Amino acid sequence: MRILATALLCLAASVQAGDLPKGVLTLDGRPAPELRLADLDGEPYDLRDHPGRWAFVHFWASWCSPCRREMPTIQRMAEHFVEAPFEIVLVNTAETEDAVFSFLGGVAPDLTTLMDSDGLVTDRWKPRGLPSTFLIDPAGKLRYLAMGDRKWDTPTYLDWLRRLTVSPE
User: Fold this and answer.
1) Measured between alpha carbons, how far is 39 from 87 in angstroms, rounded to an integer?
2) Which pTM value belongs to this model?
C-alpha cells in the first residue's frame, strides 16, 4: 500500500510540475545512483535514509565560477522549503575540506554538504559538467536535471519546486 501511495504522489507531482523552467530537463525515471558519503563533519549520509521526499542533489566545486554564483541562490531557496518534504544535498567534487569550508562558510552555511573527495560518486551520477542538479522523486527515481547555474531563489524556480513538493490532499 505504501508503494502505491508513493507512486501516486510521484505521478501527481509530475503532473503538477507543469512547464519546466529554463535549463531543466526531464529524465527517464530510472533509480537514482547510490549516494553515500560523509558530510563536512565526517558524519555518514545515505540518500536512501531519506525516503518519501523529493531530493535536490547538487554537484559543485568551489573553483567553478557558475557554482560560486549559484550557491547563494540555493541557500536562499532552501529557506522557502524548511517545512516541505524536500531534501537539499550538496555534493562537492574532489576538493579538500578546507577549500569547501572556507567557501561555504560565507554563502551557504546551513546546507548539507557531502564530500566526494575521490570523485567516485560524481562519476557514478555522471553530471554533465558543474554545476549540475538532479531532482529525485519520493520513490528514489531520477526525474529532472538542471545543468549550469540557475537562480533557484527566483519565483519561476520556487513556484515550480513548490508544485513538485506539494502532496495531494
Assistant:
1) 14
2) 0.88
Cell numbers given for 84: 516541505
User: pLDDT tens digit string along 56-102?
Assistant: 999 999 999 999 999 999 999 999 999 999 999 999 999 999 999 99
Structural domain of 106: 2-165
Q: Answer yes or no: are the C-beta atoms of 10 and 166 closer than 8 Å.
A: no
Phi-psi region of 26 (alpha: psi -120 to 50; beta: other; left: phi over 0): beta
Q: How many domains does the chain have?
A: 1
Degrees (nearest 5) of the Cα angle 51, 169, 156?
A: 75
Rounded to an integer, what distance in angstroms lies between the CA atom of residue 46 and that of residue 28? Answer: 22
CATH number, domain of 67, equals 3.40.30.10
